[in-house]
């Protein structure tokens, strides 16, 4: 069959029955749009995070600086040798190498002698592009007096004639001022080493003033705006190599070339942050899994719809290409159109926070890859059937059973292995983040791990649990009305049709549940982290002793702030228990809210007030007690506030807020410890209890009083830091989870509606069977609705449980603290029932309504014959 004839057949078939074509086209377009949008958005998020993080870094942390004594005999050779080493650094992502040379100190002669602090001469590569000449012009290489440009902030004017003498070698120089210069904003990275009071000269005349103490400097300045995440590792490698090569250049030049940079450490930090951002692909992997399952299901439905056409072609002696050509051509047209339209649609409908995916190369590549996967999934069933025909059905029953059991066993073993591998990989994620130093890449297996785990759970339950469940339900409701009984029996007997649908619903519901539980749990964990770090409503760190006004004056001033309900002093000390770091807190527990110290833990702190003798009752955290082998009643002598003090363990706490990460906690009550512990008269901190909703107002008011506070911290401050910190996933984590849930809801709903449209032939067969038994359209509607409810309901229940289980496994790995470390306190699973159950129910209810509408449209009241006109 030639291409024109194939196209004609495709168009004629689509015009006769457009429903399958439309459903497939919509599914392909949605999948390509989501994949393209996620790929482009995450690429943009990484690039913006990298650029913004490096933009606020200190200038010295973003350049490679080199310096050496100035070679007056061959300055050009020295410059060329150093630049040859630095050029590869700026060759990774672009940038420039700037040369600076500065002389020793010169003193002005004449009327200004004795008043001027001394001047240096300097020269800058490309001064015309990097300096502002506010008056006059730049110096030229003239044969007369040395032309110089003076700082615009000084008192020297254009036309002044200067006489200078070198302090070290008494070299005399006569110069004339031809201009005034200033540093434009944003040039710190290029000109950080330039003396702001230097007299600039032309590079060709710098040898005239290059006496003792003259130094040559170079700065390799990479282009941060053009630096991409994938260029971090090459840039770090070039910086490390250049630093080593500069020493060798110094030996060749018989001098010393020193390299200074904070670029390696800065880029390593950025790599850890980008590692976490790239882990945002994890929920996207679940969405791709749902889309893939949907495509497989739609492909199977399309193959059933096209079976009659292929049977007709086979009866006429058609070959493999004649059988597969029309469907393959149709698939390529639909997927090609989806690949072209998807990036344009994604830029309009997909959004992560304030980021909309641009029309970048990554969007087009992702869309093309998704379209290719769709085409493969849609074409494979047709191609397999064209090659094998009905040979599988010609096998004996025993051979078919053995083949089915073999495939089932292999599938179960495979998905079980994938599930175990996914759990191991997720548990190792924290280590992969902390070890990310010169690369920001994430193991692809990590990104796919939650999807693999979800797939393993769903497939195991679908293959091993759903068929017995359907049979059990059929027995339980077998005598409760014809629609209910027949619907349950259809679901139980047509396992090859119902289990794949239930599996797709399981995956979609599991992804929805995963997103809901992960988002609620991560938000709760961040809130608990904020309370752990901040402690009270407002925590005030006392100013330096020279600014303090006394305990009572500070207490009264803080209590007078509008919104403050109570003020409590707290002293803090750092100490060691058997070489284990610990933070000791001394607080008046009669005036301090226990929740500010131990949170919601049900702990009795009253024993801390019962101190007698020379020992002080204390509460210690569980981790410190376990590591130091301490138990209630044990006594230990430690240096507390510089004085050896006997401490008796009276209470063991689950955790103590405001304690430094990695340190244990020791809590003392000032009432019992006061006679023994010699803390400073003025407390280290003031803990404020504030009226609800007034925390920010009180914090702002206290910050305006430097005599009261060196620092002020609230829970909202900690939350904002977590949201702004890329190494924690920032606010993008919640946004990606919401986008994943929304995408899954759309994909799942469209998938189920497509299945309803593609199973029109099966509904017609069921209608004929029911009509022969005397049923009517109402009974058919009830039977099909109950069958749909049984299958999708089971999928929703299993999916919600599976998604919650996967979220529990991945919660610790996905919810990270600063620098990509695991969050402390450890996140706890939070199950939000309404967001957990409502989206899956919406996803299965809308296709159910579509099914009812299609049955009423396609069939007459008596089921004597289908109303085929409405479906054509």
UniProtKB/TrEMBL annotation:
Q: Which residues form the ABC3 transporter permease C-terminal domain?
A: 741-856
How does the entry describe its membrane topology? Multi-pass membrane protein
The identity of this protein, by name, is FtsX-like permease family protein
Residues passing through the membrane, by range: 26-45, 280-305, 361-384, 405-424, 444-466, 498-517, 736-758, 789-813, 833-855
**Where in the cell is the protein located?**
Cell membrane
Q: Which PANTHER family match?
A: ABC TRANSPORTER PERMEASE YTRF (PTHR30572:SF4), MEMBRANE COMPONENT OF TRANSPORTER-RELATED (PTHR30572)
Q: Name one Pfam family in it.
A: FtsX
What the entry lists under InterPro entries is as follows: ABC3_permease_C, Macrolide_Exporter_MacB
Q: Which domain of life is it from?
A: Bacteria
- Keyword set, alphabetical order: Cell membrane, Membrane, Transmembrane, Transmembrane helix
Q: Name one GO cellular component term.
A: plasma membrane
Q: What molecular functions are annotated in GO for this chain?
A: transmembrane transporter activity
- Similarity-based family: Belongs to the ABC-4 integral membrane protein family.
User: According to its UniProt record, where is this protein mainly located?
Assistant: membrane
């Amino acid at each position: 069959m030639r291409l024109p004839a194939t196209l004609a057949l495709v168009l004629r078939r689509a015009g006769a029955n457009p429903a399958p074509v439309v459903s497939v086209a919509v599914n392909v377009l949605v999948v390509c749009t989501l994949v393209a949008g996620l790929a482009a958005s995450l690429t943009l998020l990484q690039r913006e995070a990298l650029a913004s993080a490096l933009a606020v870094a200190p200038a010295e942390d973003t350049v490679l600086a080199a310096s050496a004594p100035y070679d007056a005999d061959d300055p050009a050779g020295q410059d060329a040798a150093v630049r040859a080493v630095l050029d590869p650094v700026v060759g990774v992502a672009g940038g420039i190498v700037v040369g600076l040379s500065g002389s020793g100190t010169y003193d002005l002669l004449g009327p200004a002698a004795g008043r001027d602090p001394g001047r240096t001469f300097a020269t800058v590569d490309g001064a015309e592009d990097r300096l502002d000449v506010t008056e006059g012009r730049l110096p030229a290489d003239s044969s007369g007096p040395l032309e110089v440009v003076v700082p615009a902030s000084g008192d020297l004017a254009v036309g002044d004639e200067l006489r200078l003498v070198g302090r070290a070698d008494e070299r005399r120089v006569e110069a004339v001022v031809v201009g005034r210069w200033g540093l434009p904003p944003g040039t710190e990275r290029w000109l950080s080493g330039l003396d702001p009071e230097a007299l600039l000269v032309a590079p060709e005349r710098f040898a005239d003033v290059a006496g003792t103490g003259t130094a040559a400097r170079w700065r390799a300045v990479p282009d941060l705006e053009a630096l991409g995440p994938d260029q971090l590792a090459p840039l770090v490698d070039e910086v490390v190599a250049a630093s080593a090569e500069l020493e060798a250049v110094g030996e060749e030049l018989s001098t010393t070339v020193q390299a200074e940079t904070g670029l390696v450490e800065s880029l390593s930090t950025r790599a850890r942050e980008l590692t976490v951002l790239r882990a945002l692909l994890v929920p996207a992997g679940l969405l791709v899994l749902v889309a893939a399952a949907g495509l497989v299901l739609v492909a199977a439905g399309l193959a059933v719809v096209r079976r009659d056409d292929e049977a007709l072609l086979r009866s006429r002696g058609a070959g493999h290409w004649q059988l597969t050509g029309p469907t393959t051509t149709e698939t390529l047209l639909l997927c090609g159109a989806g690949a072209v339209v998807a990036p344009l649609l994604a830029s309009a409908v997909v959004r992560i926070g304030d980021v909309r995916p641009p029309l970048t190369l990554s969007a087009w590549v992702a869309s093309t890859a998704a379209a290719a996967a769709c085409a493969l999934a849609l074409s494979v069933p047709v191609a397999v059937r064209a090659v094998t025909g009905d040979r599988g059905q010609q096998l004996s029953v025993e051979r078919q059973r053995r083949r089915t059991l073999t495939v089932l066993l292999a599938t179960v073993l495979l998905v079980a292995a994938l599930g175990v591998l996914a759990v191991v990989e997720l548990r190792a994620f924290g280590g992969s983040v902390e070890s990310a130093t010169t690369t920001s890449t994430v193991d692809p297996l990590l990104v796919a791990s939650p999807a693999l785990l979800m797939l393993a759970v769903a497939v195991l339950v679908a293959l091993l649990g759903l068929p017995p469940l359907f049979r059990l339900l059929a027995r339980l409701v077998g005598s409760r009305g014809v629609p209910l009984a027949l619907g349950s029996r259809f679901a139980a007997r047509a396992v090859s049709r119902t289990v794949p649908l239930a599996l797709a619903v399981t995956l979609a519901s599991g992804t929805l549940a995963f997103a809901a539980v992960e988002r609620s749990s991560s938000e709760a964990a961040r809130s608990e982290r904020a309370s752990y770090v901040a402690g009270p409503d407002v925590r005030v760190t006392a100013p330096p002793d020279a600014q303090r006004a006394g305990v009572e004056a500070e207490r009264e001033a803080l209590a007078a702030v509008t919104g403050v309900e109570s003020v409590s002093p707290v002293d803090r000390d750092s100490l060691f228990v058997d070489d284990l770091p610990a933070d000791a807190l001394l607080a008046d527990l009669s005036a301090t809210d226990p929740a500010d110290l131990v949170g919601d833990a049900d702990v009795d702190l009253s024993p801390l007030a019962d101190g007698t003798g020379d020992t002080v009752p204390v509460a210690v955290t569980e981790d410190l007690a376990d590591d130091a082998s301490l138990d209630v009643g044990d006594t230990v002598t430690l240096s507390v506030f510089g004085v050896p003090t006997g401490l008796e363990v009276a209470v063991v706490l689950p955790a103590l807020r405001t304690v430094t990460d990695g340190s244990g906690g020791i809590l003392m009550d000032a009432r019992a410890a006061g006679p023994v512990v010699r803390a400073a008269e003025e407390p280290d901190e003031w803990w404020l209890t504030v009226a609800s909703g007034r925390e920010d107002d009180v914090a702002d008011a206290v910050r305006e009083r430097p005599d009261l506070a060196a620092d002020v911290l609230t829970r909202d401050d900690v939350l904002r830091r977590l949201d702004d910190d890329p190494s924690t996933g920032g606010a993008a984590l919640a946004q990606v989870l919401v986008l994943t849930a929304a995408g899954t809801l759309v994909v799942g709903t469209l998938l189920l509606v497509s299945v309803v449209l593609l199973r029109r032939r099966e509904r017609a067969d069921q209608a004929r069977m029911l009509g022969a038994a005397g049923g009517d359209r109402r009974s058919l509607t009830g039977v099909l609705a109950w069958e749909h409810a049984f299958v999708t309901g089971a999928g929703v229940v299993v999916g919600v449980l599976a998604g919650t289980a996967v979220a529990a496994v991945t919660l610790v790995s996905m919810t990270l603290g600063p620098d990509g470390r695991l969050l402390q306190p450890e996140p706890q699973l939070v199950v939000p029932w309404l967001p957990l159950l409502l989206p899956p129910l919406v996803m299965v209810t809308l296709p159910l309504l579509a099914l009812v509408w299609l049955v009423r449209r396609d069939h007459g009241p008596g089921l004597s014959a289908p109303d085929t006109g409405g479906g054509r």
